[in-house]
Specification:
One of its GO terms (molecular function) is actin binding. Keywords: Cell membrane, Coiled coil, Membrane. It is found in: Cell membrane. This is NF2, moesin-ezrin-radixin like (MERLIN) tumor suppressor b. This protein has 13 helices and twelve strands. The longest helix has about 160 residues. By secondary structure, the chain is an alpha+beta fold. Among the domains are: about 80 residues, Ubiquitin-like (UB roll) (Roll); about 100 residues, Up-down Bundle (Acyl-CoA Binding Protein), CATH 1.20.80.10; about 90 residues, Roll (PH-domain like), CATH 2.30.29; about 140 residues, Helix Hairpins, CATH 1.10.287.
Length: about 600
């Protein structure tokens, strides 16, 4: 067995894992492949044609390096792991993203890389710009804002802001989400590629955008500095300030860049300016700086030239693609609008249908209620008709009662008139009787006075006659005349007695007449009292009849209030018996 046979067979392929910003890919590569072969394979797989911005980066001894296209992959200082891991990243950045980035995939990869650098704080971004960039990132991911779909908390799982910004303000995640959503709602109608381009247009104005920083010293004993390499040129920074460079060398002003081991030399185009030298401690870093400087300078010069046929074709295709996508988006937007309108119309029709169904249901219910109401009204109408007939009958009875009461009232009025006439006659008779009584009383008083006077005169005459008879008459008879015969004396005495008897008969006659008149007066008074009692009884009976008539009239009027067509007969009765009662009292007193 030969020594060659003892040796292991060398594998003809090796495994490679390439990590892009949004995917991971594994390839089986041939041993003889150069870096360009692997890079072209990745670009073809991704569909990238703007290859000059990108490269394959790997980690080596705590720093990173870019895979060189002209050397074999395995001959470079790549990790010995299997598979070998590479990161497909943007190596050079454009000056104006809107003009230089042609393909949508190129824009998308730049967007993802710049977004990660901002969130990892490799690129400084103010809080206001961070919120705005986050809103465009949300628009690129979720599309147009829909409050019905994008409920509060839908961004809870997304990393959108740098931790430095979150720690800088005492705000909750909900408050940050509210701010981002406010901007996000204003981006309605922006497509994903447009949102990503807007994101890059804002990011390219940041001070640290596209800058690669390296630690350097101006001389071997000087303080540390930072060298920044970007699409504009070279910049010198203080270690604690990566935003504002202390000195800048634009590519247009650099004539030559060279290095010897650890020393770099920048020769300005203007020979009057001093040559700038700086030092780097690692040879690998120096090679990387030189590689970035050459690549950025080449792109800088390329931008100032007319685009190649390939780039022109790419731009034309990209323009056509954008126009086509724009047209498709417009068509899609119209279709979406039409679909939304159709959905709204459908919803409106469904709502209208439900409304009509509700209206039909309500109408049916109303119809049923109407039928029930109609039946009820029919029953009520029948009852009302019966009540009307009953009321008509009662009204007829009431009319008869009213006529009867009118007749009764007329009779009552006639009786009242007759009674008033009797009262007046009785009053006149009473007045006459009173006058006669007073006159008789006066006559009786006069007669009594005359009788008393006559009695007094008779008594005085008798007394005087007796006196005269006893004293003077015997003397005169004895001395002046002859004695009369006894017959003459007796005659004189009889004449005197006759005169006295005549007076006594008159008095008796007068007394008898007075007694007779008194008896007649008593009889008339008794007769008048009887008439007054009869009149009082008649008035009481009239009162009772009047009360009964009032009760009948009240019942008739109450029936009219319930629907009878009957006019009440009202007979006034207040104070109408006052004159009668006063007269009765007067007669009773008399």
């Amino acid at each position: 067995m030969s020594i060659l046979g003892l040796k292991k067979k060398q594998p003809k392929t090796f495994k490679v894992k390439v990590i892009t910003m949004d995917a991971e890919m594994e390839f089986s590569c041939e041993v003889k492949w150069k870096g360009k072969d692997l890079f072209d394979l990745v670009c073809r797989t991704v569909g990238l044609r703007e290859t000059w911005f990108f490269g394959l980066r790997y980690i080596v001894k705590d720093t990173y390096a870019w895979l060189k296209p002209e050397k074999r992959v395995l001959e470079q200082e790549v990790p010995k792991d299997s598979p070998i891991t590479f990161h497909f990243l943007a190596k050079f950045f454009p000056e104006k993203v809107e003009e230089e980035l042609v393909q949508e995939i190129t824009q998308h990869l730049f967007f993802l890389q710049v977004k990660k650098q901002i969130l990892d704080e490799e690129i400084f971004c103010s809080p206001e710009a961070s919120v705005l960039l986050a809103s465009y990132a949300v628009q690129a991911k979720y599309g147009d804002y829909d409050p019905n779909f994008h409920k509060p908390g839908f961004l809870a799982q997304d990393e959108l802001l740098p931790k430095r910004v979150l720690m800088q303000y005492q705000m909750t995640a909900d408050m940050w989400e509210e701010k981002i959503t406010a901007w996000y709602a204003e981006h309605r109608g922006i497509a994903r590629d447009e949102a990503e381009m807007e994101y890059l247009k804002i990011a390219q104005d940041l001070e640290m955008y596209g800058v690669s920083y390296f630690a350097i010293t101006q001389n071997k004993r000087d303080t540390d500095l930072l060298l920044g390499v970007d699409a504009q040129g070279l910049h010198i920074y203080s270690p604690n300030n990566k935003l504002n460079p202390n000195k800048s060398f634009p590519w247009s002003g650099i004539r030559n860049i060279s290095y010897s081991e650890k020393e770099f030399t920048i020769k300005p185009l203007d020979k009057k300016k001093d040559v700038f030298k700086f030092y780097s401690s690692q040879l690998r870093v120096n090679k990387l700086i030189l590689q970035l400087c050459i690549g950025n300078h080449d792109l800088f010069m390329r931008r100032r030239k007319v685009d190649s046929i390939e780039v022109q074709q790419m731009k034309a295709q990209a323009k056509e693609e954008k126009a086509r996508k724009k047209m498709e988006r417009q068509i899609l937007a119209r279709e979406k609008q039409m679909r939304e309108e159709a959905e709204r119309a459908k919803e409106e029709m469904e709502r209208r249908l439900f409304q009509l169904q509700d209206e039909a249901r309500l109408a049916n219910e109303a119809l049923l209620r109407s039928e029930e109401t109609a039946d009820l009204l029919a029953e009520k109408a029948q009852i009302a008709e019966e009540e009307a007939k009953l009321l008509a009958h009662k009204a007829a009875e009431a009319e008869q009662e009213r006529q009867r009461l009118e007749v009764t009232a007329m009779k009552t009025k006639e009786e009242k008139r007759l009674m008033e006439q009797k009262m007046r006659e009785a009053e006149q008779l009473a007045v006459k009787l009173v006058e006669q009584s007073e006159r008789r009383l006066k006559e009786a008083d006069h007669l009594k006075q005359d009788l008393t006077e006559a009695k007094d005169a008779e008594r005085r005459a008798k007394q005087k006659l007796l006196e005269i008879t006893k004293t003077t008459y015997p003397l005169i008879a004895a001395y002046s005349a002859p004695p009369a015969p006894p017959e003459a004396a007796d005659f004189a005495y009889e004449s005197t007695s006759t005169r006295l008897d005549f007076k006594d008969s008159d008095m008796k006659r007068l007394s008898m007449e007075i007694e007779r008149e008194r008896l007649e007066y008593m009889e008339k008074s008794k007769h008048l009292q009887d008439q007054l009692k009869e009149l009082k009884s008649e008035i009481e009976s009239l009162k009772l009849e009047e009360q009964q008539q009032q009760a009948g009239l009240y019942s008739v009027s109450h029936s009219e209030a319930r629907g009878y067509v009957q006019e009440p007969v009202y007979i006034p009765h207040s104070n109408r018996n006052s004159a009668y009662m006063s007269q009765m009292a007067y007669f009773e007193e008399v």
